[in-house]
Amino acid sequence: MLTTLLALPEKPSFQRFIIGVILFNAFILGLLTIQGLNENLVVLLETLDATCLGIFCVELTLKLLGQRLKFFSDGWNIFDFLVVAVALAPATGSLAVLRAMRVFRVMRLVTSVPSMQRVLNGMFSAIPGAASVAGVLLIIFYVSAIMATNFFSEVDPANFGHLGLTFFTLFQFLTMEGWPDIARPVMEKMPYAWMFFIPFILLTTLTTLNLLFGIIVDAMESAKEEEARDSLAGRGISMSPESNEMRLAIIEQEVRGIRGKIAALSERIDRG
Amino acid sequence: MLTTLLALPEKPSFQRFIIGVILFNAFILGLLTIQGLNENLVVLLETLDATCLGIFCVELTLKLLGQRLKFFSDGWNIFDFLVVAVALAPATGSLAVLRAMRVFRVMRLVTSVPSMQRVLNGMFSAIPGAASVAGVLLIIFYVSAIMATNFFSEVDPANFGHLGLTFFTLFQFLTMEGWPDIARPVMEKMPYAWMFFIPFILLTTLTTLNLLFGIIVDAMESAKEEEARDSLAGRGISMSPESNEMRLAIIEQEVRGIRGKIAALSERIDRG
Amino acid sequence: MLTTLLALPEKPSFQRFIIGVILFNAFILGLLTIQGLNENLVVLLETLDATCLGIFCVELTLKLLGQRLKFFSDGWNIFDFLVVAVALAPATGSLAVLRAMRVFRVMRLVTSVPSMQRVLNGMFSAIPGAASVAGVLLIIFYVSAIMATNFFSEVDPANFGHLGLTFFTLFQFLTMEGWPDIARPVMEKMPYAWMFFIPFILLTTLTTLNLLFGIIVDAMESAKEEEARDSLAGRGISMSPESNEMRLAIIEQEVRGIRGKIAALSERIDRG
Amino acid sequence: MLTTLLALPEKPSFQRFIIGVILFNAFILGLLTIQGLNENLVVLLETLDATCLGIFCVELTLKLLGQRLKFFSDGWNIFDFLVVAVALAPATGSLAVLRAMRVFRVMRLVTSVPSMQRVLNGMFSAIPGAASVAGVLLIIFYVSAIMATNFFSEVDPANFGHLGLTFFTLFQFLTMEGWPDIARPVMEKMPYAWMFFIPFILLTTLTTLNLLFGIIVDAMESAKEEEARDSLAGRGISMSPESNEMRLAIIEQEVRGIRGKIAALSERIDRG
Questions:
Q1: If you write DSSP's letter for every residue of chain C in order, what string do you get?
Q2: What is the model's pLDDT at position A92?
Q3: What are phi and psi for residue C29, nearest 5 degrees?
Q4: Cβ neighbours of residue C154 under 8 Å, at least 6 residues apart?
Q5: What's the rounded mean pLDDT across residues A233-262?
Q6: pLDDT tens digits, residue range A121-164?
Q7: C2-112 and C127-227 share one CATH topology?
Q8: What are the residue ranges of helices labelled H in D35-162?
Q9: pLDDT at position D200, please?
Q10: Chain A: nearest CA to D30, how far in angstroms?
Q11: Partner-chain residue, chosen from D151, D250, D255, that has the shortest CB–CB distance to C237
Q12: CATH number of C127-227: 3.30.2310.40, 3.30.1360.120, 1.10.287.70, 3.30.479.10?
């Protein structure tokens, strides 16, 4: 009986049921955003929400009992666990923010659908490769924020008054949204301010695009390679872990070696 | 006589004629947007529009009679059929929107020119691959919309008053258009609101770019491969349905196998 | 004497001199934009400008005499010719616009520096491939403009009053600049207007990105291939005009053929 | 003793110490942006900043003494040297800007962390290849600025009054930020002004994207190739300096040659 229960989370039908519960819970949480709902209705919706939460608790408990400590070796399980644990915290007064966190339960949809999980995996796997570009971007931001605060804090205290404000303003510059509305008044008092603004925009745009593209291209390539590996494995061809660049270089070397061997072979046959 | 008529839609000259009618119809529909036209002129233009519609009806009827049920197996035929059927609906009073739909007939230009049809085909064929990224984006949007409505509906009811408004506002954030004009007033009352806005912008920009690039790169690659296949087929070389990644892995494996065989061969010759 | 003159335009030193004259002319034209210049100075600058123009006339005449009708077979020569011819047109009164065209002479810098000429060539060569995507975009624009004029011309005549205004407004939507400032007031009167605006933005953004990427990737690939061809030609390896996709497919086929032949060979040796 | 000192900058522990000092200095410089700090605290912070500067001076002196003139053959060393030298300049009165430059010392973090240094190296190495696209963009900008100043300086002197203003306004157009707010008033007086604005936006967007992508793709490819080279070198396979395009062409040629040789070989065996 217990083993049947513990095997439940692996059953496709149960997984489909959980996805249904998540979708239903998402719908309930959407309804709860409506202002001035009938009080009875709110109570009903909250009860339904609590029921969904209860089902998740049961599901995770079963998983935890079934997998024991192995449960926590999967990042997605930890995410599921935290999301449900947060919802169990007492949700009164100052904990209203925590209560708002219950919406994250809808994110479980991503962890329940394998193809979406792959999308997030692809993005996460690109993070280490993107870390150094992100680091360069952060340093450029920090240096620029200090310079901008030093230069413009007196001219435009609303936007450059202290380091926090400047960071927000520079992020706004990075999105290029409304930057001339901030830059033009500053330039009226400090005509050479463009020597800060324009290089900043150019440099951060280039670095940000570099970062975004690095992540996206990495994610796409690893997805394609995984797909190719799966497809070839089904035909009995193992795919080495090399990148395309390396594969080409290896083929080039092999082909050269083959040409040399054939040349030697035909020479020997000629002589023999 | 009938067979000649039924073969008409396949004739290049007839197809050119239809393209001409579509272009002429587009021109008429453009003229009809002008306000305060002479009434007689409007009647004339409407008559010309009806004539174009009549020609399309005849064309589609011929096609339908010629291909029978096969007609509906081509998505573009269904599109053509719907576009013409909509125009035949009575266009009075509350059906003004349906009447406005007649402009879609101009879209038939895309279905009539093969190279443009290929462009749309490329985009459509990329949709399944992009579905899971789009799903992730939708979930992020839904979760963010509920959170933003809960957090900001009292502070800024005009932009975050209910879920519908929040969705529109968050879409505006995604396009990054005027986001500081919305974020700054909210941040005056809730200083930590940037902890929602900035991660939301970063996350959705990254996911959206991922989605757009996935679609575009997919569309471009399938176009290139189709081109390569056509070009090689003309030279008697058949192109396998593999991706470039797979092709490289296969070549690598083959080349290694060849090297092994040649080594064995020369050994045998040495011994023999 | 005449042949020496006619050979002049091919001499590197003369070409460098012409580039110098173009740069000097660009500088003069920049100075002439200054308002309220001393009248004598204006006369001097105009004289210098006329001198530059004279030099260009002589250069082009020499080229034309040297190459005869072959001169007009090169698009860049036609561009140079038109740019100088325009400058010779009488520049009074209503021809002020033509006079402003003389700035285009600075564009000759692009045609004089081979590496820049290659950049433009790359872009131009990508145009035919991009034509069908551009066509789709144009049709979407035209259909949307008619629909938007029909729907919104009464609600917002300043932005959607007639087809011309709508085209400009939709282009503004495409750049996503200030679109909520236009969409929100319209939506106050027509709450479902977002059903036009948001799909329009999504569809045109996707198509435009597709168009831009098609052009850029094409331009980059043809540049890389030309470079590779030049570099390999210097080492005595001729590069076939195939694309990478085709090359991979050809190699795959060849490698398979080689494996088959070697297998046959070793069989024969075994038997022999 | 001296040799121990001179070897210090190469020691990993010393390099980690220097990175720590840079981070600490960055933190100090951040604190110094706060307005109205206690005077004693400012003195303390300035002293700590001076101490950090002192440590950098010692570090660079050791490096300089150790490497002599070779020190200046590395661009990063020159950067480090300038950044520290600037900080030593007297920082009073009109030199306040120079004083502000001391924040650049934080940029040393980039030069101290190899993975970040590689990111910048990748970007710098892409500059020569991007120079001609940047040149084309500059020429388009210059020509457009002269034309816009000539056309619009009387209609909108605030934005197009002189060449400098126009350059700033056109850069704003390039970022597409608020361009309709500038274009619409101009178009009220000059209805055909869109014939300048829209082509300008299209042309510069395309060229800028071309430039940005050229840089990013170049940087990514050289990073990937370097990685592949390192990885293959560890397995004893040397990677030729060719591009992927060239490698494919070479393999194609080699494979064709091998097929020919094998065909000749089997013929000879048949005959022999």
A1: -HHHHHHGGG-HHHHHHHHHHHHHHHHHHHHTTSTT--HHHHHHHHHHHHHHHHHHHHHHHHHHHHHGGGGGGSHHHHHHHHHHHHHHS--SGGGHHHHHGGGGGGGHHHHHSHHHHHHHHHHHHHHHHHHHHHHHHHHHHHHHHHHHHHHHTTT-HHHHSSHHHHHHHHHHHHTTSSHHHHHHHHHHHSGGGHHHHHHHHHHHHHHHHHHHHHHHHHHHHHHHHHHHHHHHHTTT----S--HHHHHHHHHHHHHHHHHHHHHHHHHHHH-
A2: 54
A3: -65, -35
A4: none
A5: 77
A6: 888 888 887 888 899 999 999 999 999 998 898 889 989 988 98
A7: no
A8: 39-67, 75-88, 96-100, 108-112, 114-152, 157-160
A9: 94
A10: 6
A11: D250
A12: 1.10.287.70
Residues of D in contact with C33 (CB under 8 A): 146, 149-150, 153, 162-163
| DSSP SS3 for A38 | coil
- CATH 1.20.120.350: does it fit domain B2-112? yes
At C104-161, the pLDDT tens digits run 888 888 888 888 888 888 888 888 878 888 999 999 999 999 999 988 988 899 999 8
Nearest Cα neighbor of C77 from C42, C117, C49 is C117
* One-letter amino acid for residue A206 of the chain: L
* CA closest to C263 among chain B residues: B261
Q: Can you tell me the distance from the alpha carbon of D139 to that of C19, in angstroms, rounded to the nearest whole number? A: 13
At B197, the amino acid letter reads F
- Is the pLDDT at D142 greater than 70, yes or no? yes
Chain B CB contacts of A231 below 8 Å: 242, 246
Exposed e or buried b for every residue in C234-256, given b needs 16+ CB within 10 A? eeebebeebbbbbbbbbbbbbbe
Per-residue buried b or exposed e for C215-229, using 16+ beta carbons within 10 Å of the residue's own CB: bbbbbbbbbbbeebb
Instruction: Give SS3 for A175.
Output: coil
Please write the tens of the pLDDT for every residue from A177-228: 889 999 999 999 988 889 899 999 999 998 898 888 888 888 777 777 777 7
If you average pLDDT over residues C82-99, what whole number do you get?
A: 66
For the stretch B32-48, pLDDT in tens is 888 778 889 989 998 99
What pLDDT sits at residue A139?
92
* Interface predicted TM-score of the whole assembly (ipTM), two decimals: 0.84
Nearest CB among D139, D180, D251 relative to C106 is that of D139
* Spatial distance between the Cα atoms of C243 and C224, rounded to a whole number of angstroms: 11
CA B161 to chain centroid, in Å, comes to 33
* Residue D260 in tokens: 């020919």
End-to-end Cα, chain D, rounded Å: 78
pLDDT, average across residues C59-80? 85
pLDDT at residue D67, as a whole number: 83
Q: Check pLDDT > 60 for residue C95.
A: no
Residues B155, B158, B159: CA angle, nearest 5 degrees: 85
Distance from CA of C269 to the nearest CA of D (A): 8
Contact B109, B22 (CB under 8 A): yes
Contacts of C172 in chain D (CB under 8 A): 180
Round the average pLDDT of chain B to a whole number and report it: 84
What residues does each domain of chain A span? 2-112, 127-227, 242-271
Question: Chain A contacts of D110, Cβ < 8 Å?
Answer: 135-136, 139
DSSP H or E run through D221: helix D194-233
Six token digits for residue C268: 């024969």
pTM of the model: 0.86
Greater confidence, B159 or A74?
A: B159
